[in-house]
């Protein structure tokens, strides 16, 4: 029979990739605070800070785009799966109908063979059957 698809296991909108992460920024504090405090040598210039911020923003946007593309691909595959499932169900139904029709026609043929004068004639395979005998067997 027809059944629903339970393959959707991707993250929905608004769900983050990992606990403690919010929009790509670590929960432990600002990125700039960590980089300045972890670098014991020289404080970074404002230009380097701006460059890092721009690079991280660019990376965040690229990651969002990648996740969106991956989600779209999963949606497309899911739609294709559902279409193939429906087609499969339809074809199975058609196989059932054709099988029933074949059984019925086999029974009709078997019943007809019992009374068909063409099949009982011993000369049937040697000579061409008479047209009047042939038309008596065919449906009108």
UniProtKB/TrEMBL annotation:
<keyword id="KW-0805">Transcription regulation</keyword>
<dbReference type="Pfam" id="PF00170">
    <property type="entry name" value="bZIP_1"/>
</dbReference>
<feature type="region of interest" description="Disordered">
    <location>
        <begin position="1"/>
        <end position="77"/>
    </location>
</feature>
<dbReference type="InterPro" id="IPR004827">
    <property type="entry name" value="bZIP"/>
</dbReference>
<feature type="compositionally biased region" description="Polar residues">
    <location>
        <begin position="30"/>
        <end position="44"/>
    </location>
</feature>
<keyword id="KW-0238">DNA-binding</keyword>
<keyword id="KW-0804">Transcription</keyword>
<dbReference type="GO" id="GO:0000978">
    <property type="term" value="F:RNA polymerase II cis-regulatory region sequence-specific DNA binding"/>
</dbReference>
<dbReference type="GO" id="GO:0000981">
    <property type="term" value="F:DNA-binding transcription factor activity, RNA polymerase II-specific"/>
</dbReference>
<feature type="domain" description="BZIP">
    <location>
        <begin position="49"/>
        <end position="112"/>
    </location>
</feature>
<keyword id="KW-0010">Activator</keyword>
<dbReference type="GO" id="GO:0005634">
    <property type="term" value="C:nucleus"/>
</dbReference>
<dbReference type="InterPro" id="IPR046347">
    <property type="entry name" value="bZIP_sf"/>
</dbReference>
<dbReference type="InterPro" id="IPR000837">
    <property type="entry name" value="AP-1"/>
</dbReference>
<keyword id="KW-0539">Nucleus</keyword>
<keyword id="KW-0678">Repressor</keyword>
<protein>
    <submittedName>
        <fullName>Basic leucine zipper ATF-like transcription factor 3</fullName>
    </submittedName>
</protein>
<comment type="similarity">
    <text>Belongs to the bZIP family.</text>
</comment>
